[in-house]
Amino acid sequence: MLAAILGAGAGGGFPQWNSNAPACRRARAGDPSARPRTQASVAVSGDGASWVLLNASPDLRQQIEANDFLRPRTCLRSTPLAAVVLTGGDVDAIAGLLVLRERQPFTIFAAPRVLAVLDVNPIFEVLARDVVVREPVELDADIRLPGGLTLQLFAVPGKVPLYLERPGELPAIAEDGNTVGACVTDDAGKTLFFVPGCAAMTPTLAKRLRGAHAVLFDGTLWHDDEMIRAGIGQKTGRRMGHMSLDGPDGTLAAFAGIPVRRKILIHMNNSNPVLLDDSAEHAQVRAMGWDVGYDGMRIEL
Ligand code: MLT
Ligand code: MN
């Protein structure tokens, strides 16, 4: 299996358009230790010819042009992109679908709850249903993907997309299929997990991840309250449906007991100091065996 990180940033990317925080200023200034990240998306392929996207980020047009294996190379209108898998209905996971209009055939694979979000929003009808197939994927069931890969989607603790939260109400964090993880397996049995949003590590999820060849996992925040502390937001990571890296309930502690071959952080928010190659936090995650995902990173399994 071949995989490529098209974007390693969380919603908003790095730098975020309206952020004047020091890290974003460093990224804008071209500081080599503050490499920009587009919004999270990964491309996977079992045969090197046909590619499947894991989430369609708002930066997809730029990501296709930055990765030559995703550009058209056969007839006048064509694409190596055969399918898109969605792990949720957040803007950073689905807005890139709008980039894929122009009557180009491909298939969207997603859990029923996520497809329902597309179905009620008429803007997604630009992906004409006679050309772009919407394929509901039952949780925990094996589905064949183009290019020699098998997909399994599974529920992880999460919440409804931000724009579907009810004003004045705290959204429930539940394993109800609004947020899912994706496991992609090739015909040689190599497994890659993509979990860009996860509110907590559960025993079921830990068991599922054991022995994986690669795990690309939610690296949104370092501290649960880092956005509040930095004066750039009012929400904790938990409130946003993301577990944080640090702390006793954090991702770093959780993975200490889960043997996986490669651990890679993805969906990192612009407030997360791991994005800075010269930070103590970056050094700490590296020392704990993690890679900090970056745009253009290739993973060969
Ligand atoms: C998230 O990952 O929490 C969401 O992408 C937030 C958002 O939709 O802005
Ligand atoms: Mn997000």
Structural notes for this entry:
The protein is globular, with a radius of gyration of 18 Å. The strands form two sheets. It has a seven-stranded mixed sheet with strand order 6-5-4-3-2-1-14. The chain has a seven-stranded mixed sheet with strand order 7-8-9-10-11-12-13. It contains eight helices and 14 strands. The chain is 17% helix and 23% strand. The protein has helices at residues 22-28, 60-66, 91-94, 112-119, 203-209, 226-229, 251-255, 280-287, and strands spanning 2-7, 41-45, 51-54, 81-86, 106-110, 132-136, 143-145, 149-155, 180-186, 191-195, 214-218, 263-266, 290-292, 298-300. By secondary structure, the chain is α/β, with parallel strands linked by helices. It has a single domain (2-161, 174-295), classed as Metallo-beta-lactamase, Chain A. The model has no long low-confidence stretch (mean pLDDT 98). The longest helix has 8 residues, at 112-119. The structure holds D-malate and manganese (II) ion. D-malate binds at residues 10-11, 90-92, 162, 197, 240-241. D-malate (MLT) binds next to helix 3.
Report a brief summary of the structure:
The protein has 301 residues and is of the alpha/beta class. Helices cover 17% and strands 23% of the residues.
Order of helices and strands: EHEEHEHEHEEEEEHEHHEHEE
The helix-and-strand class reads alpha/beta
Helix content: 10-25%
In whole angstroms, how far apart are the ends? 5 Å
The beta-strand count equals 14
* Beta-strand content estimate: 15-25%
